[in-house]
């Protein structure tokens, strides 16, 4: 393990001999009595030396072996150190152009996963994951591109038809793609975002089910599509899935369904039916090419981009082993006031998705 001070953290002096790493209080660490000798030692934490070498160097610069050892422990406990070997190995999982783009992503991960080598391990795990995005509209195409840029090993986009003007946004499909096949245009957007060649290799493309599916229909019905056949198939197959959409002036991210563990989309349908007995009838008229659909679905560009970014963050949190707020809930963003809020969702007793099998009789 070649230790290095995390490059994501700023360095500033609180007073003449107190050095602070980081600006945000949650991640900041303070080193007291930071005289020239100690600062010279800190300068050696550049990822080129293992701990025994650093302890020997501590003696050479006049800090002493034991004080150097104690300082390294202090820095590690404060979350200020990373493992340069692990960083190199993680970035080595990606082709060179993408590797260069992932530096800021890895720097951010090093703050969320603070122990040395933890953030590179998370990024390396992303390289093996497969995400499928169903829908290549303003939300879906941008979401797929962001996930690919963030290191997801394989991001596929499923859609039919050709790109229309309403599918385009600065974060997804450009206006020059109008008239092209949506699946082709979205695939190229993913490749551009990850600096991949047109025919990427490696990963687990086409090998088994995806690690997560994002349901992002172009018409925004991903905001209330919990009762669809596709969603039920994913639930039965045990595939985690996330609902995403913009409906009128509200952007929705969630629920993120972990089959058998968290409330599913049908739980949301049943909950809304409890609140509004007419909801199933309304939903039926909005399904597929139902007569109730808007002729021009509303999808504000800024709102769609915000939803795509938030959804991508939730996907990454889940794939990285954390629990995003869209599990057992969902997040809403309003184009009317820019406010966001998180709403809770409990498993509905009539759904059955969380029913546990009865224990065998004695």
Report low-confidence residues grouped into runs of 5 or more: 199-205
C-alpha end-to-end distance = 54 Å
Strand order of the largest sheet: 8-7-9-10-11-12-13
* CATH fold-type name of the largest domain: Rossmann fold
Task: Give helix % range.
Answer: 25-40%
The main β sheet shows up as: 7 strands, mixed
The H-and-E topology, N to C, reads as: EEEEHEHHEHHHHEHEHEHEEHHHEE
Count of alpha/pi helices = 13
By DSSP, the count of extended strands is 13
Averaged pLDDT, please?
90
CATH architecture annotation name of the largest domain: 3-Layer(aba) Sandwich
Secondary structure class reads alpha+beta
Evaluate the radius of gyration.
Answer: 24 Å
Q: What count of structural domains?
A: 2
User: What is the class of the largest domain in the CATH system?
Assistant: Alpha Beta
Shape: elongated
**What name goes with the CATH superfamily of the largest domain?**
NAD(P)-binding Rossmann-like Domain
Q: Which range does the strand content fall in?
A: 15-25%
Description:
The protein has 362 residues and is an alpha+beta fold. The protein has two domains: 2-84, Outer Surface Protein A, domain 3, CATH 3.90.930.60; 128-344, 3-Layer(aba) Sandwich (Rossmann fold), CATH 3.40.50.720. Helix content is 36%, strand content 18%. The protein has 13 helices and 13 strands. The protein has helices spanning 36-42, 51-60, 65-77, 84-91, 96-101, 103-112, 118-126, 140-149, 182-193, 229-237, 265-275, 279-286, 301-319, and strands spanning 2-5, 11-15, 18-21, 29-31, 46-50, 81-83, 130-134, 154-158, 212-215, 241-247, 250-257, 329-334, 340-344. The protein has a seven-stranded mixed β-sheet with strand order 8-7-9-10-11-12-13, sandwiched between helices. It has a three-stranded antiparallel β-sheet with strand order 5-1-6. α6 (103-112) crosses α7 (118-126). It starts with a strand and ends in an 18-residue tail after the last strand.
